[in-house]
Amino acid sequence: MGRPGGDTVVLVHGIAMDNLASYYFTVAPACAAAGHQVVMYDQRGHGRSERPASGYRLEDFTGDLAALLDGLRPSGDVHLVGTSFGGTVALDYALHHPGRLASVLVVESEPPTPAWAEKLGGILADAARRLRDERALPWLAEHYGGHEARLGRRSCPLLHGTTAAEDIAASRVPAEDRWRTLDVPVLAVYGGTSDLAETAPHLESLLPDCRTVRVDGYGHSVLVEAPRTVAGILVDWLGSGHRAGAAVRT
């Protein structure tokens, strides 16, 4: 997607109730219109990618991203954009392959830590349990709309047919001191009402080159609920915001 040459923007989607399609309707068109080469892919277990019964630790997803970029061999600068779990994958990749990236932008995400692994593993296990109830999908449709219900239906094979929840909880996570060595500029975007927004000061103090932006009036789904705003922030960042001293839209 986009014109050949120039910078490459790789979009990494979230886990379970997500796939590459979410980017088609949010920030991908704006990135392509700005002249960037845009790469989207379905992570393992999602969309049209294979769904192995096991192998869902964070390092497996990061390894997939590394293999993808090794195969593509993009020219120009490479930027990673990740939402939710996809942002954690992007940050993990940046820590292990810093010389390959120009910047990272994450939306409603956080670096992998033992607390993160335990929390997300628990969320996935709870979602798997809830989705076994035949009333779950009609409830999602009634309270959140048909789109969320369809996403919930699509996530059932991953949550019920794989060891994803257990694997995420057992993921390899870097020691906190390693994050203080990350040599890649990072912009983190949060919904103003999201619980994760409260972690912004810690993230800025943890990463050597990190800025954060809050989008007021939105929560964890800020990417899909305010796509124009997030796209504007992203395009600004790709243009000059990731360079030292440049302004970032707030």
TrEMBL record:
- Report the InterPro entries cross-referenced here: AB_hydrolase_1, AB_hydrolase_fold, AB_hydrolase_sf, Peptidase_S33
GO-annotated molecular function: hydrolase activity
Q: Which Pfam families match?
A: Abhydrolase_1
Instruction: Supply the alphabetized keyword list.
Output: Hydrolase
Extract the SUPFAM superfamilies matched here.
alpha/beta-Hydrolases
The AB hydrolase-1 domain extends over 8-227
**The keyword Phosphoprotein belongs to this UniProt entry's keyword annotation:** no
Top-rank taxon: Bacteria
Similarity annotation: Belongs to the peptidase S33 family.
Q: What is this protein called?
A: Alpha/beta fold hydrolase
